[in-house]
Amino acid sequence: MIQLSRPQIEALVSVDEAATEAVRDAYRAISDGRANLPPVGYLGFPAAHGDCHIKFGHIAGDTVFAVKIASGFYDNPAKGLPSSTGVVLVFSALTGQMEALLADEGYLTDLRTGLGGAVASLALCRPNSQRFVIVGSGTQAYWLARSLRHLMPKAEIAIWGRNAARASALVARLQGATVAPDLEQACRSADVILTATPAAEPLIQADWIRPGCHITAIGADSPGKQELETALVARADLRVADNIAQSLDHGEFAHARAAGLIGPGDCMELGAVLAGTSVRRAPDDITIADLTGVATQDIAMARLVLSRAKAAQ
Amino acid sequence: MIQLSRPQIEALVSVDEAATEAVRDAYRAISDGRANLPPVGYLGFPAAHGDCHIKFGHIAGDTVFAVKIASGFYDNPAKGLPSSTGVVLVFSALTGQMEALLADEGYLTDLRTGLGGAVASLALCRPNSQRFVIVGSGTQAYWLARSLRHLMPKAEIAIWGRNAARASALVARLQGATVAPDLEQACRSADVILTATPAAEPLIQADWIRPGCHITAIGADSPGKQELETALVARADLRVADNIAQSLDHGEFAHARAAGLIGPGDCMELGAVLAGTSVRRAPDDITIADLTGVATQDIAMARLVLSRAKAAQ
Predict the structure, then answer these.
(1) Looking at residue B37, what is its pLDDT?
(2) Which domain holds residue B96?
């Protein structure tokens, strides 16, 4: 059995072309019927302010399947521990034997989420998009910026954070990004907006968004979170989700759905967009992608790590 | 993180009083509302004749929770591999941190299932029961016999197997057990019958069972399996299950339910029986316990292994 720590996994896979293509294929696998994705397992620990999600699945033809066990315990920082952690287990889809324990502590989730946000943005924004605004200054904002830089080397990336010092610190870690001092102003001139905050009240208002703008929202992944004004989601010309059911249930699209403004028929699946079978935007369309996370991405990352670990042996 | 191999786990826990009490408490936790047991996760691999079950849960007050990933790939023996395998992961219920990887290869499942069968039998059989018949000669029959011997040292244990050589080999591994040459004859004189076979056709007929007999059935744990004639299940004076919904859906009681002969109201929960809050048998009652397996048992075993491993450090 292969057992890898976070530093070992970081050395094997980061923002690169194979990882990007793995993420793209993970989305396509949902839409073309290759993915077997049972419902996500959930355990709540209300007294400890924690929860655990168990994501698992298999992509037809893969020789492995993966189980990801990821926890968030929100009192952890006071104990000197990160609030999120996780492990990914890889098993043979031919014999059931455990092949690997990837003690990535959430690194692969951060990476695939950043790559997914960049992939969705590139697939849906206008080809001539220049001004990219990242809303948020945490771990996920970092990986979004890294992934955008990889996919669109000439993008102008501005970062806005509620905490200006954190935004400046993030910009200092990235090459060529700038701080956006004012969120409204940044949004009004943006070609692409990527949101990665834990906001429970909408940050981005509908009337800030100019025609042709694309927005990718990755922050809202559980009930009560919301980054975009409900009217903005309702007003969009095109809504895309990695998993439509999840997005309407507990993602960014849930609020517009709860208000009766949109339904499943008003959303498209990102995998179908990436397969080129569905969408074509008009230049002035406002488009929104909402990503709540899917297990095929975890499988894809685990498979890539494992193949590289075996090749390095 | 504590990491233990099967031999290390075998050295830490086997048929003993603490393990038995842990299994009893695991059943009670379901009935008294302490257990948080989400639906079992399932992945099928039909092309490889395999499947994977992911059981997880938490018992209120426990400082840990567990996730068990257990696979059966039925072409494995031809490849020189066991058909079943599994791992149990233990996490802190206070911080989400992974505390242990128990690479038990299914040992803890075998052990807790054997202990569970003996616990259920002792709870439900007449106090003066003497003649115990185990139907089956596989791994599970072995653990049932070991567990019965622990709980009822004076029990006369006879083993019947479809394959007489395997039954003899099993008897040779056990102290004081005998081979039952004829199944019908053994059943007709049995006080307690324990079935642990993968039978897809009923082995035990209703008219073989004398008044006062108790039967514990552990073999039928998925659709299509059946060890007891449907008429026997329907005829029983008392039906008990570790998990009533599972038993009626894909356990031994499923066939009588499908035939419209019994429903949920005709079954009692083993945890309630063990808590002493419910059942009292008449001496001539025929009673049946059906065990399909519950995650609280896996949690209880993992907790015991972990506490002993820490104590030994």
Answers:
(1) 92
(2) 2-108+296-312
* Over residues A270-278, mean pLDDT: 85
Q: The CATH number of the domain where A42 resides is what? A: 3.30.1780.10
Q: What's the whole-model pTM score? A: 0.89
- Whether the Cβ atoms of residue B37 and residue B294 lie closer than 8 Å to each other: yes
Q: Is residue A44 within 8 angstroms of chain B, CB to CB?
A: yes
Nearest by CB: A101 against B79, B93, B101: B101
Residues B49 and B96 in one domain: yes
Q: Which chain B residues contact residue A46 at CB under 8 A?
A: none
Question: What confidence score (pLDDT) does residue A278 get?
Answer: 57
Q: Report how far residue B146's alpha carbon sits from residue B230's, in angstroms, rounded to the nearest whole number.
A: 29
Partner-chain contact B97 A79, CB within 8 Å:
no
Give the integer Cα–Cα distance in Å for A290 and A241: 5
pLDDT digits (tens, 9 = 90+) for B100-153: 999 999 999 999 999 999 999 999 999 999 999 999 999 999 999 999 999 999
Distance CA B159, CA B187 (A): 11
Interface test with A, best of B95, B105, B296 (most A CBs within 10 A): B95
Taking CB atoms and an 8 Å cutoff, what residues of chain B touch A109? Answer: none
Query: What is the reported pLDDT for A277?
Result: 63
- Domain match, A156 and A193 both: yes
Q: Are B19 and B118 within 8 A, CB to CB?
A: no
Same domain, A53 and A170: no
DSSP label of B208: G
Are the beta carbons of B91 and A69 separated by less than 8 Å?
Answer: yes
Tens of pLDDT, residue by residue over A42-93, are 999 999 999 999 999 999 999 999 999 999 998 998 999 988 899 999 999 9
**One domain, residues B6 and B34:** yes
> Which of the residues A91, A102, A104 would you substitute to probe the B interface, choosing the one with the greatest number of B C-beta atoms within 10 Å?
A91
Say if CB A253 and CB A262 are below 8 A apart.
Answer: yes
What proportion of chain B, given as a percentage, has pLDDT over 90?
91
Each residue's pLDDT tens digit, B258-306: 999 999 999 999 999 999 865 678 999 999 999 999 999 999 999 999 9
Residues B269 and B220 in one domain: yes
The answer to whether the beta carbons of residues A251 and A276 sit under 8 Å apart is no
Residues B141 and B254 in one domain: yes
Residue whose C-alpha is closest to residue B159's, from B175, B177, B173: B177
Contact A82, A105 (CB under 8 A): yes
Average pLDDT, chain A: 95
Indicate whether A208 and A302 sit together in one domain.
Answer: no
Contacting residues for B191 by C-beta, under 8 A, at least 6 apart: B125, B126, B128, B129, B130, B131, B132, B212, B213, B214
Is it the case that residue A166 has pLDDT exceeding 90? yes
Helix, strand, coil fractions of chain A, as percent rounded to 5: 40, 25, 35
Q: Is the pLDDT of residue A148 over 80?
A: yes
Could you tell me how far CA A65 lies from the centroid of its own chain?
21
**Locus of tokens 């993968």:** B198
B81 in contact with A, Cβ within 8 Å: yes
CA distance A240 to A289: 5
CA angle A242, A245, A249 (to 5 degrees): 115
How far separated are the first and last CA of chain B, in Å rounded? 12
Residue A98: pLDDT over 60: yes
A43: nearest CB among B42, B52, B58: B58
